[in-house]
Amino acid sequence: MVQLLKVHGSQNKFFILDQTELKTKLSQPELVALAKHITAPGNGLLDGADGLLVIDSSDHQDALGSMQVINTDGSIASMCGNGLRTVSRYLSDKFGKDAFKVETMDSDLDVHREADLADDVPTFSVEISPVSFAKENLPFDNLGTDTLINKEVPQFAPGLKFTAIAVPNPHLISFVDEETMHSKTLGQLGKMLNDPNDYFPDGVNVSFAQILDHNKLFVRTYERGVGFTNACGTGMSATSLAFCLNHPDVADFDEVISVYNPGGMVKTRVHSRDDTFSIDLIGNATFTHKIEIPDDDLHANNLDHAKITETGEQVAYLKFVEGLKSQTVK
């Protein structure tokens, strides 16, 4: 029997599969097929998820393991901040270490256990890097510029300014008012830029942000390969960097920024060193269910015999979210 986990970071939901625990590892086509099946809201498990996080061994120095992120449509994401927190907790529990590195597609990232955000809400900090503004790293084209930082793009949405940042997956960010935040603009723009288009050929994660106070934001994201999510960790990280760059009167480098989202809240810290940026993403790593599946069924992409057990951790997380409602969040 193989044990999977249903997990979430800020209600950004995933399944975790540890390949090192299998008698025979799943092939890449098997992993993609499993991801598309298990995350589907209709015929998947537990109302589906936003992706499958695949853990494997790593031979990189100080890395306890590697993480691959497979989206619901079978595409591969270069990074996932919310997912990395849950993988970090899994590896921390497995190996008994509180600070280490995790190998991701583009870099080995520092992670460590943090003080819990609330009672019984396990919390981890993960490094979000490398950061780039260069159009070839996003990539984008046909915008008449090599970088896009706080500029109007009328073909996207009249009157809005946009910033494009790779962390390393691509993000397009706009700071908006409350009316725009609750309009159809984000969904329309997100769909346009993730369907075949002339600007972002590989698609892009699109985030709208509303400034609530000094070092305080609300962020909503249309995620590439997924659609609307409760939260996007790299999206909130990239938005925090754009916040510090574009609104220095209300955002501070190296200070904690509270970032609210439809699924809860995370904290970020943005660092600038010698023209190089990195972000700390701090938030919950909640395990909601344990799932046991026979090895052969997993290879056959058969979920019919899965045995599911609740962990009880979601109760504490929902209590934490309920406490956020007393704070000023739009």
TrEMBL record:
<feature type="binding site">
    <location>
        <begin position="81"/>
        <end position="82"/>
    </location>
    <ligand>
        <name>substrate</name>
    </ligand>
</feature>
<feature type="active site" description="Proton donor">
    <location>
        <position position="80"/>
    </location>
</feature>
<feature type="site" description="Could be important to modulate the pK values of the two catalytic cysteine residues">
    <location>
        <position position="223"/>
    </location>
</feature>
<dbReference type="InterPro" id="IPR018510">
    <property type="entry name" value="DAP_epimerase_AS"/>
</dbReference>
<keyword id="KW-0457">Lysine biosynthesis</keyword>
<feature type="binding site">
    <location>
        <position position="205"/>
    </location>
    <ligand>
        <name>substrate</name>
    </ligand>
</feature>
<dbReference type="GO" id="GO:0008837">
    <property type="term" value="F:diaminopimelate epimerase activity"/>
</dbReference>
<keyword id="KW-0963">Cytoplasm</keyword>
<feature type="binding site">
    <location>
        <position position="169"/>
    </location>
    <ligand>
        <name>substrate</name>
    </ligand>
</feature>
<dbReference type="GO" id="GO:0005829">
    <property type="term" value="C:cytosol"/>
</dbReference>
<dbReference type="InterPro" id="IPR001653">
    <property type="entry name" value="DAP_epimerase_DapF"/>
</dbReference>
<feature type="binding site">
    <location>
        <begin position="233"/>
        <end position="234"/>
    </location>
    <ligand>
        <name>substrate</name>
    </ligand>
</feature>
<feature type="site" description="Could be important to modulate the pK values of the two catalytic cysteine residues">
    <location>
        <position position="171"/>
    </location>
</feature>
<protein>
    <recommendedName>
        <fullName>Diaminopimelate epimerase</fullName>
        <ecNumber>5.1.1.7</ecNumber>
    </recommendedName>
</protein>
<dbReference type="Pfam" id="PF01678">
    <property type="entry name" value="DAP_epimerase"/>
</dbReference>
<feature type="binding site">
    <location>
        <position position="71"/>
    </location>
    <ligand>
        <name>substrate</name>
    </ligand>
</feature>
<comment type="subunit">
    <text>Homodimer.</text>
</comment>
<comment type="similarity">
    <text>Belongs to the diaminopimelate epimerase family.</text>
</comment>
<feature type="binding site">
    <location>
        <begin position="223"/>
        <end position="224"/>
    </location>
    <ligand>
        <name>substrate</name>
    </ligand>
</feature>
<dbReference type="GO" id="GO:0009089">
    <property type="term" value="P:lysine biosynthetic process via diaminopimelate"/>
</dbReference>
<keyword id="KW-0413">Isomerase</keyword>
<comment type="function">
    <text>Catalyzes the stereoinversion of LL-2,6-diaminopimelate (L,L-DAP) to meso-diaminopimelate (meso-DAP), a precursor of L-lysine and an essential component of the bacterial peptidoglycan.</text>
</comment>
<feature type="active site" description="Proton acceptor">
    <location>
        <position position="232"/>
    </location>
</feature>
<keyword id="KW-0028">Amino-acid biosynthesis</keyword>
<comment type="pathway">
    <text>Amino-acid biosynthesis; L-lysine biosynthesis via DAP pathway; DL-2,6-diaminopimelate from LL-2,6-diaminopimelate: step 1/1.</text>
</comment>
<feature type="binding site">
    <location>
        <position position="12"/>
    </location>
    <ligand>
        <name>substrate</name>
    </ligand>
</feature>
